[in-house]
Amino acid sequence: MPMSHSIFEQRLFYALLVLLVWLPLPLASNRLWFEPIFELAAVFIALFYIWGWQRQWVRPGAGFASAKPMLWLLGLWLLYLGLTILPLPLAWRMLLSPESVAQYQLAGVKTAPLSLMPYVTLTYWLKSATYATLFALVLLLVNSKQRLVLLAYTLVLSGVFQAFFGSMMTLSGLEYLLFQKKEAYIGFATGTFVNRNHLAGYLEMTLAIGIGLLLASWSSDETIRTWKQRVRSLLRLLLSAKLLLRVMLAIMVIALVLTRSRMGNTAFFASMMITGFIGLLMFRAQAGSVRQMFSKRETRSMVILLSSLLVIDLFIVGTWFGVEKLVARMEQTSAEHDAGRIEVSKTTLDLIRDYPVVGAGGGSFHSVYTRYRPETITGYYDHTHQDYLELAADTGLVGLAMLGTMVSLSMGAALLAMRRRNDPLMRGMAFASVMGIIALLIHSSVDFNLQIPANAATFMVILALGWIALSLERQERTKRRSRSAVEVEYDR
Predict the structure, then answer these.
(1) Distance (Å, whole) CA 264 – CA 86
(2) H or E segment at 257?
(3) pTM for the whole thing?
(4) Ramachandran angles phi, psi of 132, nearest 5°
(5) Dihedral of CA 347/350/355/356: which sign?
(6) Backbone angles phi, psi at 199, to 5 degrees
């Protein structure tokens, strides 16, 4: 590939990194005037990529080819959402959503789509198309180990900025967002997010990526047998990027504790332990026995690293920065304390029962739910504090099943990478993908992180990491071996 063409592709990759850093800054892009910036930026990068591809100026990453099942599902998902916007025959609508037919008939409308709010569902479709585009761009542009490392460090640095900014605002008492004074969650770290739980969700994913990077660098350590080697290794650690990365992880954990997000902290530590256990099982499968497993240097490194993260972050850093307040808040958790959220979840089930197959329409919850909200609930709920219920209410059980299948496929790719890849970086990124997926799935059971553009977009990157870790540079080596075999056969 000529140098000018390589520069063209490199600039597209840098534009993608800038977009990922930008997304959390303006209130997590969760405003009507910020969402179009995200959508237009992703479209422009994609159009430039297509233009470069036609001129053979770009080289698609191996992850794009391996993720074809996921890409097909994303296309099917967009088609599915599109069908809910289009006017359909009455017989189809009666079969798929009789309640929506009844609601349109009450309004005197005869020809209508499945969605009760077609315009809102159109904007929902545009956001979904943007997430799908972002997922494809990550697979296409991350075509080398150097870019994979740069992508990972970019997201970690973005998380560190959010953590440092949020912590300083809380500890100093200034309580500002990026360009405006905070009006809610005073005394809690929110970064440039409005909601502390959404900052916690973002930190869960960036922490997972940082731990993946740390595991990748730790697994390449040399065998240490003497005290001289230990001293040399310690000095090398103090002068290496590993120590800086460890400090960045500590800063993010401090901010996570300062959010006082109960499920955010629970999801982080639970996902780290669950993924660590899965990693040990993968080593066990490779080693063949428990004794051989724990004799492997990579396994010992992982156990030591994860144990240090748990002990140092939870008990030392947490003690200095108010972990006792977080514990006290967890102890206060009760049905009475969270009565509003529980009641919203219960009444959301009534909405789902009326629109079980295809839902009331993507993005329609904030409007449709007003019919189901009981008088005992005061205030306005634009989201239910449960991603799964809201997705089912908006897109039906069919939509929820499709999204669940996509996440399962990506999780499967990441687990296969942990099992099959010997490259430390690929294992580390596979670990990051599994941990990030588990963390957000746990957190989504009590919150709506997937409705926030910055977090949903970062989650798409987490999903893409599993496919990249499974295939990056693996296919190239296979092709080189195949060419070598052909050349040998030809020489004969």
Answers:
(1) 39
(2) helix 241-258
(3) 0.90
(4) -65, -40
(5) positive
(6) -60, -40
